[in-house]
Write a structure and sequence with these properties.
The complex is a heterodimer. Chain A is of the alpha/beta class. Chain A has six helices and nine strands, in the order βαβαβαβααββαβββ. Chain A is 36% helix and 21% strand. In chain A, strand 6, helix 6 and strand 7 form a beta-alpha-beta unit. Chain B folds into four domains: 126 residues, 2-Layer Sandwich (Alpha-Beta Plaits); 164 residues, FAD/NAD(P)-binding domain (3-Layer(bba) Sandwich); 66 residues, Alpha-Beta Plaits (2-Layer Sandwich), CATH 3.30.70.20; 182 residues, Rossmann fold. Chain B is globular and about 85 Å long. Chain B contains 17 helices and 29 strands. In chain B, helix 5 crosses helix 6 and helix 13 crosses helix 16. Chain B is 29% helix and 21% strand. By secondary structure, chain B is of the alpha/beta class. Classes of the chains: A alpha/beta, B alpha/beta.
Amino acid sequence: MSQNEDLRIGVYVCHCGSNIASVIDPKAVAEFASALPDVVLTNNSLYTCSDAGQRQIQEDIKNHKLNRVVVAACSVRLHEPTFRACVAEAGLNPFLFEMANIREQDTWVHSHEPEGALEKAKDLVASAVAKSRFLTPLDMIKVPVTKTAMVIGGGVAGISSALDLADMGIKTYLVEKEPSIGGRMAQLNKTFPTMDCSI
Amino acid sequence: MVDAARHPNITVKSYTEVKRVEGFIGNFKVLVEEKPRYVNMDRCNGCGACSPVCPIEIPNEFEEGIAPRKAIYIPHAQAVPLRYVIDEEACIHCYKCVDACGKLDAIDFSQQPRQEWLDVGSILVATGFDNFDPSVIKEYGFGRYANVITAMELERINNSAGPTAGRIMRPSDSKFPNKISFIQCVGSRDERYNLYCSGFCCMYTIKNAVQWKQTYPDADITIFYMDIRTPSKGYEEFYRRAREMGIRFIQGRPSIITEDPKTGNLFIQAEDVGLGRTIELESEMVILSTAAIPRVDTDAMGSVLNISRSPDGFFMEYHPKLRPVDSPTDGVFLCGAAQSPKDIPASVAQGSAAASRAARILNADEWEIEPIVAMVWEDRCISAQGKKCGICATKCPYGAILVETGKAAMVTAAKCHGCGGCVAECPHNAITQKHFTDAQVISQLHALLRHEPEKKVLAFMCHWCSYGGADNAGTSHFEYPASQRGLRVMCSARMDSDFIFEAFRLGAGVVLVSGCHPQDCHYITGQRVGAERFEKLTKRLVDMGISPQRFRVEWISAAEGAKYAQVIREMDQTLRQIDPQALKEEIERTRPELERRVRRLPEIPDVALALELAKATS
């Protein structure tokens, strides 16, 4: 738990080329973050998700003994898995990583309001840092896998996927609601651009 | 088709529908129902003796209704499986087929729908598309003028296995039409129907025209188009070939078609963009290139599979660029036209892509899932103290919580999906959600509202939908005021009343709670747990003296970026319309009651520390 350890938080503010940096100054956000308690290191780089950007994080984890990493960049839906894998490779539990979305939910929607966007970026970083203080290491839950697939729909896409799965040795149910498989494709005569038959 | 049926690893379940899906990645249970064929699949050998004796004739769906079929039928000569089926609605039970079947004794009217549960590790959705019904476009006269047909009808007429044995004839007088026109974008790229481009209609029309011209070199063929789209390999060359063959391409969407009732010929009025004037063209037959539209049962299928739809109505992928065949539900993949209109090469490619994505899971011995699950603080659970409670279990969509009085509630981690509904509903703050603990959320709240909170639009978002909607607003660059401050949890079920009280206590100007639409909820009924809470909360906040316009509940899907931006704009506007002095007074006036409401928060592990830290940093 956070109160029992010496927190060492690293904050990385991404420019995302000009996607973020054309609206706000990532350096200003990084400077702001450096004043937050327990933040021992801040960085701003052109592309934090790049090989160089990720390597920097990994080196900092080792050299500066970071035990929390916060990246202010794009959406968690895009790069949270990337950075979780990055910190895990450097020996940090992936759940000690936190992200602030200053692109999709900031610079991309407030381009006409750069000052407001900057203030918001600072708050989002403050929020991510605040959360990171209470993050705890977690282990993934392992579940067994039933080695069978189901393809719903027996048209050309469904048949293709079922054949590929079956060729890989996977038992596959091909479920079709009509009396015959084939779908729309079966209705066609010749098909473009080769003008061969469809079935 | 035959390859699939013969493959030792494929079990074809035809005439079968998916009814229910339970479980999670690697461990799905699917309830399927096989409809009764009234023909024994093992006994029927596909000989076809039954069909000719059947006295019933109804329109044949496979032939687009332009030829009849019997009540006992096979969809087409190459059907897989080649087994007859009785259309129960059309059958009059004359039993002539039974006699014709004779010794095989394959007809079985006692058959009932047969349900079974199947265990699978992954599900691939390849449910395809429907064709747009052009009869709604009155000006084209489909359904009124015999010689206005759809491209799919042409496919059947111009098919050696079709009802005319490939002999082209027009419906009104069975004559060969030598002068024909195709009309593109029927139901697509049209604000009245569908905005999207259907993708493959340009190519299938060019194919139909080329095929026609190859057989009948003297034919006079015109294609009315908006833009010709030939982006894939070999397509532009194919288009060029069509032009070189003498097929006429006119840029312009026809405005109206009229018919000469005597000849059955059609007059097309259109603007020829190239000439810059309107033209009229007489045709003996007109073929409408209809749009591919989402299947009529997309909504029902979506709720069974727990996957949502894009604004165009097709199933939505997890990420348009990085995970184009993944659905938002782990272990469920999309391929073919179910995801967006697609031609055959693209459907085949995506089928392979989805198979490969699924095989990652299916070839693993075990799969790792996120440990963002609920956890009970046993010392805080009143059930452990012998008191009756169990609220948590009633809110769990997955039956993952077991409550026995005398013991603390127990969460089965593998069953828990991490919506957080139990956490927010526990009246004793005895449950937490890993990675979304109260201390974490409270810390975020304080950080987001550290500066001029009364000017902020605080937005709670669920991970799957409304956060996705906010991302969608971003990728679409739909601007909204920078007064918004977003806080993400996994599901609206996790949005604890205490968080909202705390936000108002801190002086937040307006507060939004946003989550998935009920049918899109990633946690079956998580959204409902949240919605019920917010309904009560809306009244309670008003009772406490908080102006009703300061709290808003909205359901926003991951595709509704425009809606997300609009809601934030409206809330910012609302906030600006409140007199600042009055707002300040309201915040001060309501604070004591809000403080009373959240007085027990510091009892939750780490929350006292979070509050202390927040105070120190503000």
